[in-house]
From TrEMBL:
It comes from Paenibacillus flagellatus. This is DNA helicase RecQ. The lineage of its organism: Bacteria, Bacillati, Bacillota, Bacilli, Bacillales. InterPro entries: DEAD/DEAH_box_helicase_dom (IPR011545), DNA_helicase_ATP-dep_RecQ (IPR004589), DNA_helicase_ATP-dep_RecQ_bac (IPR006293), Helicase_ATP-bd (IPR014001), Helicase_C-like (IPR001650), HRDC-like_sf (IPR010997), HRDC_dom (IPR002121), HRDC_dom_sf (IPR044876). Residues 537-613 form the HRDC domain. It is an enzyme of class 5 (isomerase).
Length: 613
């Protein structure tokens, strides 16, 4: 219970709880157009509105923003939202203002005069939420100004950035705790992230000085997404075929380097595909322009480095292709999770090539991190390599990585739909395990494969490995096939790799069981098939296109991204339900009273005319 004391106090607090719940649901319906909360939202919102700190770990698309936007709309004063990217602020501010909740931001795009003017407006009570970048909190003057405001609530988005164990540590996030010494009375603090291991969660609570927070982890599985890992494909040919087959869909292609982004984007443009590019080598203006065109659906495909994506809230991305392996599972899941934010089906495809792992190692070595941080980054990269080779359900691997051992097989990914023949590879596995043991578990995958292949290699001879009984034990196999099998055996838990630039193979208890002849090892033996075609059609396609064009005209008039008016999922539901009156239209998810007053009549008229025709 959140309230305690005498019977009268408990009755009074229970009344407040019911009242707060009713207020939260009213805000949800009026401003956001939904009748019910998603999983985890109501518990977090109830805790925040009762004055408790909160930690929400919810996958992309699960509605983290609602968890702080609804309480902010209900509270007196202004809520401060700490958000890492300027582009994300703009999207959130546009969306909230469209929903009738006055919101603004303060960041480096504003002049000193503009900042002062916004502060005057904030102090006058003209806004309910203010978004700021964490770097702004490093300014003593800015923090003192905050101390003059009534701030009952501080929300921290992308909270994993506060942890050095997280995949995107930002030192500026450490300044957030300073606010608690300045703002009086102490505000409620809520932190939200899509991906956090148990260690990262504890870091968040400690660094943000949270008091016994309400903790909600809704699970990491995304039931509307299908994951695929493809190896040995011609990447450019696959990319061209895939994008052409989905000419009407929005998609993101992630690449590791600026050069890869430039090459992929040029290739797609030459094929007549409306593609844009986004990386750190472009000017701020060009990046902003590319992002704007993508948000407004003028570009169908964005080719980008991982700098893109964390700062967008585009709901109708249907696919995300990773042209290269990313640096860790956390980054991959956040980037892949940009697909299907509207709850409609999405595909997440990783095109794996061994040389991409070397690129990531090079980027780690060239980075400015200290040795301790680099060791963490190498360990994180190994987790991504294991994902690329695992034979278990890909969705299950991801949720297990984040600490949920009870995850269920999705039935949709490239592992679950793999219909290759199962073969007994116990003998090959025993040869590999025996070789690793005879090499004293002190060397990596490549050298082990060379010994097993029987390679005439100087390093093999230097260590005397050409005299081992396992030298040439797999001479009939290609070296790359041996490397691949070793990677699979690592991913399946028979061996481990040390966290270092040159990882060393070590055996686990499972491998020793196989060596003793007490267990067998089975693997599939034919190429992975390509991803299945997307199945996103629902309702009347001609009506859906009419509604999209109507939405686009409003978006151009109001100079806002189309999805801030209505998500594609809302348009799809309109096509299925075909509302004929205001009441019927208000029953559609995503249509709130505020948006109906702004746009509803025209959309309703379009539907009525279409059905009459």
């Amino acid at each position: 219970m959140w309230y305690s004391g005498s019977r009268n106090n408990r009755e009074e607090s229970g009344g407040h709880e019911v009242q707060a719940q009713a207020q939260a649901k009213s805000i949800l319906k009026t401003h956001f157009g939904y009748d019910t909360f998603k999983k985890g939202q109501e518990e977090l919102i109830a805790g925040i509105m009762a004055g408790r700190d909160a930690l929400g770990v919810m996958p992309t698309g699960a509605g983290k923003s609602i968890c702080y936007q609804v309480p902010a709309a209900a509270m007196d004063g202004v809520t401060l939202v700490v958000s890492p990217l300027i582009s994300l602020m703009k999207d959130q501010v546009d969306t909230l203002n469209q929903a009738g909740i006055p919101t603004t931001f303060i960041n480096s795009t504003l002049s000193a005069q503009e900042v002062n003017a916004r502060f005057r407006d904030i102090a006058a009570g003209r806004y309910k939420l203010v978004y700021v970048a964490p770097e702004r909190l490093e300014s003593d003057r800015f923090v003192r100004l905050l101390g003059e405001l009534h701030i009952p609530f501080v929300a921290v988005d992308e909270a994993h950035c506060v942890s050095q164990w997280g995949h995107d540590f930002r030192p500026s996030y450490m300044s957030i705790s300073r606010l608690l010494d300045v703002i009086r009375p102490r505000p409620v603090v809520a932190a939200f992230t899509a991906t956090a291991t148990d260690k990262v969660k504890e870091d968040i609570v400690r660094h943000l000085r949270m008091n016994d927070p309400v903790r909600v982890t809704t699970g990491y599985a995304r039931d509307n997404l299908s994951f695929f890992v493809l190896k040995g494909v011609d990447k450019k040919a696959y990319l061209a075929e895939y994008v052409r087959n989905r000419a009407g869909d929005s998609g993101i292609v992630y690449a590791s380097t600026r050069r890869e982004v430039e090459e992929c984007c040029s290739y797609l443009v030459k094929l007549g595909i409306r593609a844009g590019r986004y990386h750190a080598g472009l000017s701020d203006e060009e990046r902003a322009r590319s992002q704007e065109l993508f948000l407004y659906d003028e570009l169908k495909v964005m080719v980008a480095t991982n700098a893109f994506g964390m700062g967008i809230d585009k709901s109708n991305v249907r696919y995300v292709i990773h042209y290269n392996i990313p640096k860790n599972v956390e980054s991959y899941y956040q980037e892949a999770g940009r697909a299907g934010r509207d709850g409609q089906p999405g595909e997440c495809i990783l095109l794996y090539a061994p040389q991409d792992v070397m690129t990531q190692k090079f980027l780690i070595e060239q980075g400015e991190s200290d040795e301790e941080r680099k060791t963490i980054e190498y360990g994180n990269l190994h987790g991504m390599v294991e994902y690329s080779h695992t034979t278990e359900c890909l969705q299950k691997y991801i949720v297990r990585y984040f600490g949920d051992p009870e995850g269920q097989a999705c039935g949709r990914c490239s592992s679950c739909t793999d219909d290759r023949e199962v073969a007994d590879v116990t003998l090959d596995a025993q040869k590999i395990f025996s070789c690793v043991a005879r090499m004293k578990q002190r060397f990596g995958i490549t050298l082990t494969a060379k010994v097993l292949r029987g390679a005439n290699d100087a390093k093999v001879r230097q260590f005397g490995f050409d005299r081992l009984p396992t030298y040439g034990a797999m001479s009939s196999r290609k070296e790359k096939d041996i490397v691949n099998l070793i990677n699979v055996l690592v991913a399946d838990g028979y061996m481990k790799l040390t966290d270092s630039q040159y990882p060393v193979l070590t055996l686990t208890a499972e491998a020793k069981t196989v060596l003793e002849g007490k267990a067998q090892v089975f693997q599939r033996v034919t190429p992975v098939k390509r991803a299945a075609a997307s199945t996103t059609d629902a309702g009347d396609e001609s009506l859906f296109e009419k509604l999209r064009q109507l939405r686009k005209s409003f978006a151009e008039r109001d100079r806002v991204p189309p999805y801030t008016i209505f998500h594609d999922s809302t348009l799809r539901e309109l096509c299925v339900m075909l509302p004929q009156s205001e009441d019927e239209m208000l029953s559609v998810k995503g249509v709130g009273e505020h948006k109906y007053r702004k746009y509803g009549q025209e959309f309703l008229q379009c539907i009525v005319e279409h059905t009459a025709g």
